[in-house]
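User: Predict Exodeoxyribonuclease III's structure from this.
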Amino acid sequence: MRIATYNVNGVNGRLPVLLRWLEETSPDIICLQELKAPDERFPAAAIEAAGYEAIWHGQKSWNGVAILSRVGTPVETRRGLPDDPDNTQSRYIEAAVNGVLVAGLYLPNGNPRPGPKFDYKLRWFESLVAHAAELVATDMPVVIAGDFNVMPTDRDVYRPERWLDDALFAPEVREAYARLLAQGWTDALRAMHPSETIYTFWDYLRNAYARNAGLRIDHLLLSPALAPRLAAANVDRDVRGWEKSSDHAPVWIELANKPVRASRRKGPKI
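Assistant:
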């Protein structure tokens, strides 16, 4: 089973790119972020015509998350975090799909730092850490996928010295991510590519994509019950180079039907 995450940066404006990627790669389950559309403007008919059922949590002009599936109806279990510091922002959706609990998120950017937006990011992250601990405690197969707006380590950012003052690279944010992993979550992309330079986002400015001046901010985290089934993980980097594409590329994992890796209960792997 292939599960992917993709920040589409506007689901309607990028719809041709999204549909082309779905047709060419046929992922089974997809978490989308930055829909930038209210619920009534989500392109449900086009998504259905592509062979996917969907649930979504939209917002006019900003944010918005969705879960798409071609392997069974997503059964929504949560919309928004339990202690979301601002429930007017559509940033989290969760559903049971084909035997896996799928959580899709769009974590706040947090810039400028310091300031109220950065404070909100930290509060939202703390709510996520608390909820993730509850998910781990269930011993269910869970994946948390989305745009986390955090580069966990120096390996995950081009020219890290230029990002020291940015909210995506702040020590408090990286520490929160590490605490999340310490619950037992596996960072799937880094687990499969422990020492590679691998990015998921390239800015539109300064020819960043062509120079491979990127960031790794889109992650798929696997619970201890699911991590042993991780068989592959990668980035569909070429999609970022398509005409009128998002500034993010899709990230995906392959899950085997049976365990293929040793189980890991504790300790971050980033």
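The CA atoms of residues 6 and 32 lie 5 Å apart.
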